[in-house]
Write a structure and sequence with these properties.
Distance between the termini: 18 Å
Helix content: 25-40%
CATH architecture: 3-Layer(aba) Sandwich
Oligomer: single chain
Number of domains: 1
CATH superfamily: P-loop containing nucleotide triphosphate hydrolases
Strand order of the largest sheet: 2-3-4-1-5-6-7-12
Bound molecules: guanosine-5'-triphosphate, magnesium ion
Radius of gyration: 21 Å
Length: 362
């Protein structure tokens, strides 16, 4: 966030975004409300929808330590969402989640008391676009790919989602992890290459499914030391470190189901029939994790992803300050910084705004 006064600021200035919140609330005139656009990058089955579900389960409606709260604006929509969360939780106890086929938009409001301060705006991501679009794909698929890229290029925060390999991964699973890194890195690079050159963005390097790696968070943290995390996500770390338009980046391991999840065994010994008519061995089918019925498991390390994204999403906005006036967004960012410190999430910063600013000016 460019908190310094505009006349002293040598970075290009962007007016505050035309506020969707203003329109939503029917407010008049220029206010300091803004929209933080967050978009996901991750192939099918990576855990993007499970993360959004975990956000709905554990972050929405709860108070941050500053007293701020992320929620839907309309209480009727809260009622609807609560019903949806129950339905999805039930699916997670039986079959696992269905692949996303629609880019459903989601808008949540950050409230301070009853006052809406900004909008957290995101979409469900269709992972199949990443996994299945090739240069030869039919026109309608190319169009969905282009629409996806258009969303990525205007994002303030990108959530890269790479599934953590399961315990004792098979050779197939290890190869899948390497392919995941390659594909995620290619889409991240394209998102950054096409990104508005006058705008910075922040990047979450997410490692999903760490709740399937070990029985407890302590054990998972032992297995995934800082060194291991850095090595595991090295291509993505290099990418964000080199990118001039990435303001900040951090690794977040999370478990959207919560520790204690179990593997759901496939109903059939084969995972289907391949294009050439041969049965696909079970080993090629990705593991499906479910949350046991009546389990009190809760999603792990999800709130930190949201608060970090709000904070760094604000920090890439441009805020003009009048003399002696501390803009609302600056105050909100300070509260979020305190919230993050109070929460102490499991995260590893790989690029900080100060370093990014220096790189941009160099
Ligand atoms: N244990 C565990 N399993 C997870 C987690 N996230 C996802 N899964 C498993 O992975 C499956 C697929 O997750 P989704 O969130 O639907 O994957 P997605 O990235 O949205 O996939 P698409 O919608 O196809 O793009 C779920 O049904 C779970 O079995 C996680 O954090 N922990
Ligand atoms: Mg999905």
């Amino acid at each position: 966030m460019y908190f310094s006064r505009s006349e002293k600021n040598d970075l290009p200035l962007r007016p505050l975004p035309l506020s969707f919140l203003d329109r939503l609330l029917g407010a008049r005139g220029k206010t300091e409300t803004c929209v933080i656009h967050i978009e996901g990058i991750g192939r099918g089955h990576a855990g993007k929808s499970a993360l959004l579900h975990a956000v709905k389960e554990t972050v929405l409606g709860n108070f941050f330590s500053s007293g701020m709260q992320l929620d839907l604006l309309d209480p009727r929509a809260v009622g609807q969402e609560l019903m949806d969360v129950i339905a999805t939780s039930e699916r997670l106890q039986s079959d696992g989640l269905l692949p996303t086929l629609e880019t459903e938009p989601l808008h949540y409001i950050l409230f301070q008391g009853e006052r809406p301060r900004l909008i957290f705006s995101t979409h469900e991501t269709i992972g199949q676009i990443l996994s299945h679009t090739t240069p030869d794909s039919p026109p309608e698929q190319q169009q969905r790919y282009q629409e996806y890229l258009a969303r990525l290029r205007r994002a303030d925060v990108l959530w890269c989602v790479v599934p953590c390999p399961p315990p004792q991964p098979t050779a197939t699973e290890q190869a899948l992890y390497r392919r995941d890194l390659r594909l995620t890195s290619a889409y991240l690079r394209e998102a950054l290459r096409l990104h508005d050159p006058n705008r910075l963005c922040a990047v979450v390097l997410g490692l999903s499914k760490v709740d399937a790696l070990a029985p407890t968070p302590q054990k998972a943290r032992e297995l995934l030391s800082d060194e291991v995390l850095q090595e595991a996500l090295d291509p993505l770390i290099t990418q964000v470190s080199m990118a001039a338009n990435v303001s900040a980046a951090a690794i977040f391991p999370w478990g959207a189901l919560g520790f204690g999840c179990v593997e759901r065994k496939a109903d059939t010994p084969t995972a289907g029939i391949s294009k050439d008519g041969k049965p696909v061995p079970v080993d090629d089918q990705e593991r499906e994790w479910i949350r046991p019925k009546n389990s009190n498991a809760v999603p792990f390390n999800v709130a930190g992803v949201v608060i970090w994204s709000l904070l760094h999403g604000i920090q890439v906005q441009e805020v003009e300050c009048r003399d002696g006036d501390e803009p609302q967004l600056v105050r909100i960012a300070k509260h979020l910084e305190d919230d993050l410190q109070a929460l102490k999430p499991w995260m590893l910063t790989v690029k900080s705004p100060a370093l990014a600013l220096r790189a941009l000016r160099a």
